[in-house]
Amino acid sequence: MPVEVLHADAWCVVADKPSGLLSVPGRGEGKQDCLASRLQALFPDALVVHRLDMATSGLWIMARGLPVQRQLARAFEHRQVRKRYVAVVDGVPVGTADGGWSEIDLPLGADWPNRPRQQVDHEHGRPSLTRWRVLGAGPLPGTTRLELEPVTGRSHQLRVHLQAIGHPIVGDTLYAPAELAAAAPRLLLHASELALAHPADGRPMHWRSPPPF
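RESULT FIELD:
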């Protein structure tokens, strides 16, 4: 699984993560290969700021040095980083009449007996908000291509929110029915856009990565 570095300077590194590669090391000897370690082999001062699920592909940023890591972590925390994804989902979601952005506002929490699964939890869950809009028909019959913008950044947020409204992501082995999970060789979810202020001088930075599906 080759990794493409899209941007590198003295403050940050942006790469395109392939599906099936961990963002950070997992537990056990067989789970040490990850995007973080590969980038650190090239940029020894690169530090983790956020994560993508192993099954998700797309844009991922690392900070170079602890001060920049703290700065970017604050930017993520205060929602100053814009992230957009493309997904292929089952069925045809019904959104706003004009085809603009719709919202999924459902609190999420861990499904403790079934970790790492997450679930909608109205009693103990954390507020979670996803914006979405239809891009067109999906590549498989009866599917739709969506653009997604997670306003919050909960674990598995996009996957659980789409399942909760009855449109799970194709290829999702955790949240989709078995037939839909087996309909694609991978999870059809890709981090397609990343935009933020450069940590050095604040100039707008914007990266795009077309989905490979």
